């Protein structure tokens, strides 16, 4: 698979390295917005890196680093 920063190489569920990735919009408009107020571009929602394990099907979504950087100062997001 493509090497993405901070994404573990092996599946955390089954340990397989047979995984695939693509990019998808985090939504907005008529679709749910899964990363509200984390866009760094007013005209576009952030893009997820989606990783799917071909063996067990576990699917993970990774937000872009520039969106992650906005989390600590966002009133929309609550730190757990
Ligand atoms: Zn797996």
What ligands can be seen in this structure?
Answer: zinc ion
Note poorly predicted spans. Answer: none
Number of E-type strands: 3
Largest sheet, spatial ordering of strands: 1-2-3
Largest sheet: 3 strands, antiparallel
Class inferred from helices and paired strands: mainly beta
**Could you state the order of secondary-structure elements as H and E?**
EEEH
What would you note in describing this structure?
The protein has one helix at 65-68; strands at 19-25, 47-53, 59-62. A three-stranded antiparallel β-sheet has the order 1-2-3, with no helix packed on it. The protein has a domain at 19-73. It is globular, with a radius of gyration of 14 Å. By secondary structure, it is mainly beta. Helices cover 5% and strands 22% of the residues. Strand 2 and strand 3 form a beta hairpin. The longest helix has 4 residues, at 65-68. The model has no long low-confidence stretch (mean pLDDT 89). Zinc ion is lined by residues 11, 13-14, 16, 53, 55-56, 58. Zinc ion binds next to loops.
Secondary-structure map:
Layout: E1 19-25, E2 47-53, E3 59-62, H1 65-68
Antiparallel strand pairs: 1-2, 2-3
Bound molecules: zinc ion.
Residues 11, 13-14, 16, 53, 55-56, 58 line the site of zinc ion.
Short description:
The protein is mainly beta and 80 residues long.
Task: List the defining traits of the structure above.
80 residues; mainly beta; three-stranded antiparallel beta sheet; 3 strands; 5% helix; binds zinc ion
